[in-house]
Amino acid sequence: MNAVDELLIKWANNDLTPAEQVELGNHYSTADLEHFIIDSRNVELETSNVKTEWEKLEPQLIRNKSNSKSNYVIGIITILFLLAVGYWYISSLGPDKTIENRTYEPLLFAMEDETEILLAPGSSLSFNESRFVDHRKVWLDGRAYFDVRVKGDFTVATDNSIVSVLGTTFDIWELDDDVLVVQCFSGKVNVSTSNGMGAILNAGQKYSLVGESVGIGEIDNSNEPKWLSKSIVFEGIALSTVYKDLEKYYPIKFVGHASKVSFNGELPTDNLQKVTEILNAVTSDTYKIENNQVVVSKSE
Amino acid sequence: MNICRDDIFKKLFERCQPKVQRFLRSKGLDIEMSADIAQDAFVRLWNNCKKVTEDKALSYLFTVSNNLVIDSARRDKTKQKYLSELKVTHENMDPEYQLRMSDFKAKLEFTIESMATGSREVFLMSRFNDMSYKEIAAALGLSVKAVEKRMSIALKHLVENNIIRRK
């Protein structure tokens, strides 16, 4: 490529300096070059109408936008699906089997992990049967004594508390919102209540929450709760609550005067006559057994 | 600037569609085929609107169009004959001017049709699409030197056909 050719190339790209323009004019007709530029501006490669082309293109873009919307909707559906799966998984950890003790005697049963549970009369226990081995949690309504033999997390939830244990024997009694008593006979348990209170109990300690009164104390020199030996110990429990509990051990109903007095003492679970004798002796009320009722009246 | 907004994309289309279609016509495509491929290129630009900035959009369209033409040529093995379809745009009713332009158009169309394909597309892009050698090189995936060489051959052809005369 010679120098003149290079000038011509630069001319076609509109890159010539004034000096180069003069030099190119020495070899080519300047008029021809100018005419070529002017005339070639007046011809063009024919193209389509832009407006028409946009009208053809726009629906395709809208379709893509719909796809974006679809993707957004699919994204939302996916999130909802994952939430549903998560909810299902969490729900599936909930109880699917319930054992109720409708007798007036303690009910002994063993869980799959060898934990033995003595369920008090009138109490019930729920758990997730299919997942229990991996997720050792039970829900208790009432009173039960637990002998957890295999180490690892084991949790007992009641309406108002969660008790976590590590290989131990312990007893839980919860009655409505009035009473929560946890006794630890061996090992260690962690008690957490729904109102944010709680305690870590070592063997021989008990935690009690009666009304708003919280206490941690020593348990009697025994290896198991009294109710397993045919008696119940009440400490500062309202008589109305004592009646409710006794109704779980005897096929009777307490009717009549409802005293607001608290009761401290031990009552048998296999001798109703003796129960009434004790109550007659230590309270100011009168207790009489009539058919399937214990009639309570105010002493004169 | 993000070109994903409808109004910005529409303005970009109005500004660039003729350039893209002329680019495709320079490669020998007829008006319908060039319009279709330009549409495809704009759809791809829309689909990638988050990745392509406004200042890069035109070079993106040229590159995509060029690739689409190559793909299309691979699919359709029949060699496409270049169709010269220049159009006089200046509406001057002076008979002398009309005669001169008609003569110029005919000579130019003949010259262009007889050019080698590579030289022709470079010449048309340069002359009728206001593309610099650098832009042509980027769009066709060539070096600037290669573009200049093709342009040199095209210009010699113009000289040989007396469209540009030596002294």
Structural write-up:
The complex is a heterodimer of chains A (300) and B (167). Chain A contains six helices and 20 strands. Chain A is an alpha+beta fold. Chain A has a seven-stranded mixed β-sheet with strand order 2-5-6-8-9-12-13, with no helix packed on it. Chain B is mainly α. Chain B is built from seven helices and one strand. Chain B starts with 5 loop residues before the first helix and ends in a 7-residue tail after the last helix. The model of chain B has no long low-confidence stretch (mean pLDDT 86). At the A-B interface, helix 1, helix 3, strand 1 and helix 4 of A face helix 1, helix 2, strand 1, helix 4 and helix 5 of B.
What's the structural blueprint in terms of helices and strands?
The complex is a heterodimer of chains A (300) and B (167).
Chain A: H1 3-12, H2 18-25, H3 30-41, E1 43-45, H4 50-92, E2 97-100, E3 107-110, E4 116-119, E5 124-127, E6 137-141, E7 143-147, E8 153-157, E9 161-166, E10 169-175, E11 179-186, E12 188-193, E13 198-202, E14 205-210, E15 213-218, E16 231-238, H5 239-249, E17 253-256, E18 262-268, H6 272-282, E19 285-290, E20 293-298
Parallel strand pairs in A: 6-8, 17-20
Antiparallel strand pairs in A: 2-5, 3-4, 4-7, 5-6, 7-10, 8-9, 9-12, 10-11, 11-14, 12-13, 14-15, 16-18, 19-20
Helix pairs in contact in A: 1-2
Chain B: H1 6-26, H2 31-47, H3 54-75, E1 86-88, H4 95-113, H5 117-128, H6 133-140, H7 144-160
Helix pairs in contact in B: 1-2, 1-3, 2-3, 3-6, 5-7, 6-7
